[in-house]
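Morning!

This is the sequence you dropped in the shared folder:
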Amino acid sequence: MSTRGGNGDVPPPDDSDLPELPPEWRSIVIPDDASALADEAAAVRRELRERQRSSPPVPRVSRRTFLGRLLTPPHEAALRIPLVIMGIAIITTLTSLFLVSWLGQPRTPTAQRTPAGQTPTSGRTLPALDLVAEDGSSTPLRGLLPAVFVITDGCACDRLLQETLRATPPGVRVIAVSRAPASGPPGGPAPGVLHLLDQAGSLRAVSDLPEPAGGGAVLLVDERNEILRTIPSATTADEYRGTLEQLA
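The structure's back. Tokens below.
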């Protein structure tokens, strides 16, 4: 009866062709219990730690940076610098154009405020107009300047005329204009006031003054024939006292 080997019926291989182990390895002993190699394993680990400490540190490469370099095509990386330069040039050009257009805009002059109830008269002049005096003669208005014209239609303006006459500087005429002839003695209740007849309402029309509203319509015209101020409906001379001083 034959005896079977460890490989069954196959005979063990011939190890005569295998290379010999290095002599420095000496004899290799494989223990039955792996814990017997604990001391040698600890010594090997200590040796590896000492080598790691003595060797220079390996620089760490960020994954994002590394992956970004790998994933970025070479031609795109080469175009970054020109694109940045072009972007800066475009921004600079747009900024310059904006500044030039903003600085080149004409500034709107500050408008002067016109007090309530008054009509702006900047640059307006009194047109050539003749009215009728109390004696029936034709009187050109431009020959009476500087003057304060008070249109008295629909207004009990006796008090207003008296206040205006007292507040008017010397050399400035106070002229009452109405469509109907003045009643009473020449000069009326305010001696020194010149009364003129304007049956057609021409002075009110050329001055763009509205219809009577209970007060006297006032025009202040200087010696250069410029209308300084108009008041559609005045009840007291205090409303234009400051402008009266400019007529002197």
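Headline: Residues 43 and 49 are 10 Å apart (CA to CA).

More detail when I'm at my desk.
O.
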